[in-house]
Structure formats: structure tokens, C-alpha cells
Amino acid sequence: MNEPIYLSKEGRIKLEAELKRLKFEERPRIVAEIKRAKELGDLSENAEYHAAKEAQGHLERKISELEEKMSRIRSVDTDKIPSDKVYLFAKVLVRDARDGEETEYMIVPPEETDVDSDKISVKSPIGVGLMGKAVGEKAEITVPAGKIVYEILRISRE
Predict the structure, then answer these.
(1) 29-69 per-position pLDDT tens digit
(2) Which residues contact 102 (CB under 8 A, 6 or more apart)?
(3) Is the dihedral of CA 6, 12, 16, 18 positive or negative?
(4) What CATH class is the domain 78-157?
(5) Domain edges within the chain
(6) At 70, which helix (H) or strand (E)?
(7) Of 58, 69, 54, 56, residue with least CA distance to 19
(8) What is the pLDDT of residues 73-99, one digit of tens each?
(9) N or C: which terminus of the chain carries fewer CB neighbours within 10 A?
(10) Looking at the domain 5-75, which fold is it?
């Protein structure tokens, strides 16, 4: 599991901010909770203490996972990505062949997926189906609801 994780500059900054928040806000808060709970006396029957210790374990695992992930990040300069075909970080305007509805997606790494902002994973069925296609091409994509046929109308960078 040592494969690189490709993120945009914004994605890396977001991950760094989350790690900083966990280390410098959440960790001290939980340490203070543990200290306060210890002061309540008998630790063997102290539910607050045990809950705080469990929360600390979860937090430390999350910090460790984020640090490991950070060590594998490779930043992608989105300005250098060509726009002749659909690649990672491309914005793709597509038209649904069934109803003519147009949608613009941005193809992003799984870590930057945000469906509400139409940022879809390169590993999702739609992301996989659009990759490598050029303007004017059609992509037939199998999704849980059936098949979708998209025509690529425009490809641009972020």
C-alpha cells in the first residue's frame, strides 16, 4: 500500500490543515478530558476516563493514517495537464444522450471527491468511463442505475 496519492495543491493544503487541526486542537482537548476524568478518582469504574482514552486511541490512529498518507502524496501541477483529452483534474462538460441534460464534472483523485461540487473520483464508474476521451467522443458508462451515454462537449483545466 505504498502507491503514491496524487492531489492538487488545494487537496494537499486541505489534508495538511486537517492533520494540523487533529494534532494541535483535538489532541490537546482529549488530553485535557483525560486529565479531568483522572481527577474524578477510581479509574476502574470511571466511564468518562475510559471514553476519553478510547477517543484518544481513535484520534491517534487517524493522525497516524493522515501522516502516512501525507508521506505518499505527489502534488500535481494542474496547469500542466493537457486539455485535449480527459485526464485527472480535467473539467468535462458532457451531454446525456437520453435527455440532452448537460453536466460539468471535475475528475479528481478519490481523496478529493466532492459529489456536491461535481468533483467525481477518477475511480468511479463515470470517472473511469470519461478518462482518455476527447471532445466529440461518446462514453458509454455502466452505473448502478443502468447505462449512461455521455457526449464530451468541452474539456478544460481547473
Answers:
(1) 999 999 988 887 777 778 888 889 999 999 999 999 999 98
(2) 93, 94, 95, 96, 153
(3) negative
(4) alpha beta
(5) 5-75, 78-157
(6) helix 47-71
(7) 69
(8) 887 776 777 778 898 888 999 999 999
(9) N
(10) Helix Hairpins (1.10.287)
